[in-house]
UniProtKB/TrEMBL annotation, chain A:
Family, per entry: Belongs to the WD repeat DCAF13/WDSOF1 family.
UniProt-annotated location(s): Nucleus, Nucleolus
Recorded superkingdom: Eukaryota
WD repeat windows: 62-104, 278-319, 321-362
Protein name: DDB1- and CUL4-associated factor 13
A GO molecular-function annotation: ubiquitin-like ligase-substrate adaptor activity
One Gene Ontology CC term in the entry: Cul4-RING E3 ubiquitin ligase complex
GO biological process: female gamete generation; maturation of SSU-rRNA from tricistronic rRNA transcript (SSU-rRNA, 5.8S rRNA, LSU-rRNA)
Keywords: Nucleus, Repeat, Ribonucleoprotein, Ribosome biogenesis, rRNA processing, Ubl conjugation pathway, WD repeat
SMART domains, A to Z: WD40 (SM00320)
UniProt key word Ribonucleoprotein: yes
Pfam family, one: WD40
Pathway: Protein modification; protein ubiquitination
UniProtKB/TrEMBL annotation, chain B:
Signal peptide (UniProt feature, chain positions): none
Species assigned in the record: Hucho hucho
Protein name: WD repeat-containing protein 46
Boundaries of every BING4 C-terminal domain copy: 446-524
Pfam families: BING4CT, WD40
Length: 408, 623
């Protein structure tokens, strides 16, 4: 007779001393783990619910402007500094860690249309409705000194947007045409136009630094090469684009925010059709900004919401709104990928978390357990009041179409 | 110099791999020894071989030779394949012949291969077709996830080689049946701790006894018919509590851990803790005869004498559903551990399958002529074993509800139980028989047999141990059945050696992962399948959300016109005009479609005619 009976030595399965960690022998045999799918589903569902429970995205509101905030600019060297310009020509410099305004100056008469901080972070440029481009020092003037621009250029027409070259002392403005300026000169070194009367936005490519893209009022997006005399390419869309933003990591892609409630991501090499159409907003999209990782972007809309989209996805993963926030005009994603800043009509700048459920501050070890894939999450789980929801949007659009149908 | 660094780095990998490869080499050598016939074909006197300069040169040559000679033997089919695979992989990584730092070529290039059958064990579902190229994003996602699951499968299979314990077995000598070996002989032959697992508890006063083992197999719960309830740590023989409930006890069951158990008494269902303190008396559950606990759902399913099947959610203490089965007294019950479906046996010979989501049985099978006495379902949810008053023991495949085997037992089996490794125990009177592999080839003899002191009332295999617990009229017997239990447990699922802290941790996690009763169904993996809703369905949903049909044809309402042009006659005329126009559109469309189909057909005919026009040599025989 040959016999063997299971006989385990307990020493192999329990820890030797109390100072050791517990032994956990594993056996991955699927028959010992029944109901894998329903259990995984339950786990994912719980994780998603917890994420929603912990989602507290709103951090702070920066108030102080006396008119709607029209534009914002990030500081390239300092995470805590941010600039904002309002519709009454006032410009404020903010310290985000203290959440306070550190400097106020009257930059223009009428709107401040655009702002950009020079790549070195020592000065910044503003354009306004008074047809001027002004260069300002970043440092606060000392006691008794007057706030005065370093440089002022008087242009022929109103400038609507400005952007600065990544490495050289060159900047670009747009208005009735796209102008490229040398910092040392008072007249543009090059001007582009392609049968268009005005432009709303112009942006330098962050990687191929000589490339530019602009949104024109004739529903087109035009690409330029700074070294050439004529524009490169043009794509005409159904409706006008308000702004555009290059993807900082895959710099051949850019996303534009359109009047037809959608955002369009294009590959600049294949402009014949958009790479992805991002739908969810229920009113015109006014501004867009990419996260520094290039994986996501945030959009601001006339429908009083902010939405965060993954770059490949057609629908948003998150929507932020408050009762008091009105039409969001400008949006920025902070350079440390953690925060979002939104500037809106009702004179406030709001600071949001980029990841709504993230715990800020000191993270204790016990909290680090939310690592499941939340496959269950859909944007339909997000609560949106009133007309901001998508069903309402579709209903509204259908009603509009109905009214427009021709009566024979 | 980069060329010098590269081979050095490569070398470290195969050295690590040889370690993993070792058990496999061992396996092949044992297999070769087993297939004795092929070994005999070898001439006894062969060429004298030189001793190999390196040990691997010898082994590799051996492997190759065997591969050539024993191509018929299915055992060794893998060897040549693997050799080929290995060289192929090596080629990918820059050739097997690539020199490493010492100047020798790498004997084990590439990663160690994993045996096919091990891989198959961890396979989940079939690989689907890749989506077509234009859907490149989806395709990319599918490719990535498939690569991840492949990797997981491979890693699991690799880990499987390192499991510490092997299953038990019992083999008789020549002309010796294993069923004649007595428990005492086995207890003498094995080591002292394993031998101590055969014991008797003489409890002649309050029997017969029903029993239940906890999920980890550490704790035993006994319930005597005349009210004696006791729970103990059966390995250390440590008594946790003992009491007499002064009432008839119909069934006992552990709940999710060894801290709580349920007792079905004469009238109501009671819950006790492991100190014997009565926690709940559940008056909604009356006359319970049999109970089953679904550990992943935290559901206690009870079958009562009044014909009710009830589910109690023990995590919140609420009754989930009470189903009136309309089948009389329910005293035969089993649950399918694979999909948490309850099987009930009835006195008219049928077995019915139930979920808490449906008031009708999912399946009704006629299994026996005469009543069903006992039902058992195996761990993988593939086989169901039933015994009936017609003295038959039948095995069914419950994926297709097809009978596989039917055995005749002279006395009929009163209790059935299936072990983790598929042994079947059947109690006939006071004899407990254990059968091996009842669903494969027809079995003629039992694997083991044992005569208990009284008539058997309940049998239960202990999980993760080679032990069968038998409750009978004179007490309880713990039998040693080699090869019954799963040798390697999973520490995160059911750990017999867990500490109190680990148990608490497990309890919280298990509660967080509690599966809702709505998810119980015949196929537990249904949730992972894509729900292809039809266009009509989606359209219906859309209509419901919108409140109107966006694709519906607009009803024409003529505009009001002035100067007598909106007289009822004119309006009618305009309406008719529009209707005609619509009709004309429809007709035009259908005609176009028909023309298109005709054209296609004609072209096809033409092509066929052209193909037929080519003369074949056989055409001359055609009339």
């Amino acid at each position: 007779m040959k016999v063997k009976v299971l006989s385990r030595n307990p020493d192999d399965y329990v820890r030797e001393t109390k100072l050791d960690i517990q032994r956990v022998p594993r056996n991955y045999d699927p028959s010992l783990h029944p109901f894998e799918v329903p259990r995984e589903y339950t786990r994912a569902l719980n994780a998603t619910k917890l994420e929603r429970v912990f989602a507290k995205p709103f951090l702070a509101s920066l108030d102080g402007h006396r008119d709607g905030v029209n534009c914002m600019a990030k500081h390239p060297k300092s995470l805590s500094t941010m600039l904002s310009g309002s519709c009454d020509g006032e410009l404020k410099v903010w310290n985000l860690t203290k959440r306070e305004c550190v400097r106020t100056l009257q930059a223009h008469e009428g709107f401040v249309r655009g702002m950009v901080v020079r790549f070195c972070g020592t000065s910044f440029f503003t354009v306004g409705d008074d047809k001027t481009i002004k260069q300002w020092k970043m440092e606060t003037p000392g006691y008794g000194e007057e706030e005065e621009p370093l440089n002022t250029i008087l242009g022929k027409s109103v400038f609507t947007s400005i952007d600065h070259h990544q490495k050289e002392g060159v900047f670009v403005t747009c208005g009735q045409q796209v102008d490229i300026w040398d910092e040392q000169r008072s007249s543009p070194i090059r001007s582009f136009s392609w049968g268009v009367d005005s432009f709303s936005c112009v942006r330098f490519n962050p990687v191929e630094t000589e490339l530019l893209a602009s949104c024109a009022s004739d529903r087109s997006i035009v690409l330029y090469d700074m070294r050439e005399a004529t524009p490169l390419k043009k794509v005409i869309m159904n409706m006008r684009s308000n702004t555009l933003c290059w993807n900082p990591m895959e710099a051949y892609n850019f996303t534009c925010s359109n009047e037809d409630y959608n955002l369009y991501t294009y590959d600049m090499r294949y402009l014949d059709k958009p790479f992805t159409v991002h739908m969810d907003h229920v009113s015109a999209v006014l501004d867009v900004d990419y996260s520094p990782t290039g994986k996501e972007f945030v959009s601001a809309s006339f429908d009083k919401t902010i939405r965060i989209f993954p770059k490949d996805s057609g629908h948003s993963r998150e929507v932020y709104h408050t009762k008091r926030m009105q039409h969001v005009i400008s949006i920025k994603w902070s350079s440390d990928n953690k925060y979002i800043l939104s500037a809106s009509d009702e004179m406030n700048i709001r600071l949001w978390k980029a990841n709504a459920a993230e715990k800020l501050g000191l993270v204790r070890q016990t909290v680090l357990f939310l690592s499941f894939t939340s496959s269950v999450r859909t944007s339909s789980n997000l609560q949106v009041p009133g007309i901001k929801s998508n069903v309402m949007k579709e209903r509204w659009i259908s009603e509009q179409c109905r009214m427009l149908t021709i009566n024979r | 110099m980069p060329t010098a660094i590269k081979p050095h780095r490569r070398r470290s990998q195969p050295v690590g791999m040889t370690y993993q490869f070792l058990p496999e080499v061992k396996k092949y050598t044992t297999k070769m020894a087993a297939s004795g016939e092929t070994m005999l074909k070898k001439p006894h006197v062969g060429k004298k071989r030189k001793p190999p300069t390196r040990y691997w040169e010898g082994t590799e040559e051996n492997g190759k030779n065997d591969g050539k000679k024993q191509k018929e033997g299915d055992n060794n089919k893998q060897t040549p394949q693997q050799n080929k695979k290995r060289t192929k992989e090596g080629g990918k990584r820059g050739g097997a012949g690539e020199k490493i730092l010492s100047g020798k070529s790498d004997p084990f290039p590439g990663s160690a291969p994993v045996p096919e059958e091990k891989l198959k064990k961890f396979k989940r579902g079939e690989k689907g077709e890749l989506p077509p190229r234009p859907q490149y994003k989806l395709r990319d996602v599918v490719v990535r996830s498939e690569a991840a699951s492949d990797l997981a499968q491979k890693q699991n299979a690799r880990y499987d080689l390192m499991l510490p314990e092997d299953a038990g077995f019992l083999e008789g000598d020549e002309d010796e049946d294993t069923c004649t070996i007595s428990q005492d002989d086995i207890a003498d032959a094995v080591d002292i701790t394993a031998g101590a697992k055969y014991f008797n508890l003489t409890l002649s006063q309050f029997g017969p006894y029903r029993l239940d083992y906890s999920k980890t197999g550490r704790h035993l719960l006994l319930g005597g018919r005349r009210g004696h309830v006791t729970c103990l740590d059966w390995q250390s023989k440590q008594l946790m509590c003992e009491m007499n409930v002064m009432e008839t006890v119909n069934d006992v069951k552990w709940l999710h851990s060894e801290a709580l158990f349920a007792v079905a008494q004469k009238k109501w269902l009671y819950i006790y803790d492991n100190k014997g303190i009565e926690l709940h008396c559940i008056r909604k559950f009356n006359d319970v005869l049999r109970m089953q606990f679904l550990p992943y759902h935290f559901l206690l399913a009870t079958a009562s004498a009044t014909g009710f099947l009830q589910y109690l959610d023990v995590s919140v203490g609420k009754e989930v559903v009470a189903i009136c089965t309309k089948a009389g007294r329910l005293d035969v019950m089993a649950h399918n551990p694979h999909n948490a479906i309850i099987h009930l046996g009835h006195s008219n010979g049928t077995v019915t399958l139930w979920t808490p989501n449906q008031r009708e049985p999912l399946v009704k099978m006629l299994c026996h002529q005469g009543g069903v006495r006992s039902v058992a379902v195996d761990k993988t949810g593939t086989y169901m074993v039933t015994s009936g008053m017609d003295k038959k023991l039948k095995v069914y495949d419950i994926r297709s509800y097809r009978p596989l085997q039917s055995y005749f037992l002279p006395a009929g089996a009163s209790c059935l139980s299936l072990s983790q490794r598929g042994l079947l125990s059947a109690a006939t009177g006071d004899i407990v028989q254990v059968y091996r592999d009842v669903w494969g080839t027809p079995v003629t003899k039992p694997y083991m047999a044992h005569r208990a002191k009284g008539s058997v009332w309940g049998v239960h295999f202990c999980p993760f141990e080679d032990v069968l617990g038998v409750g009978h009229g004179e007490g309880f017997t713990s039998m040693v059945v080699p090869g019954a239990g799963e040798p390697n447990f999973d520490g995160l699922d059911a750990n017999p050696y867990r500490s109190a802290k680990q148990r608490q941790e497990w309890e919280v996690k298990a509660l967080l992962e509690k599966i809702q009763p709505e998810l119980i169904g015949l196929d537990p993996s249904q949730l992972s399948q894509v729900d292809h809703s039809t266009w009509e369905q989606r359209h219906e949903d859309r209509v419901q959300a919108l409140g109107f049909d966006p694709l519906a044809k607009e009803k024409f309402t003529p505009r009001l016109k002035t100067k007598g042009r909106s007289s009822s006659g004119k309006v009618e005329k305009r309406k008719k005009q529009v209707a005609h126009e619509d009709q004309r559109d429809v007709i035009r469309q259908t005609v176009e479609d028909r023309m298109k189909i005709d054209k296609e057909r004609k072209e096809k005919e033409k092509k066929e005619a052209a193909a037929a026009g080519q003369k074949s040599a056989l055409d001359r025989f055609r009339k």
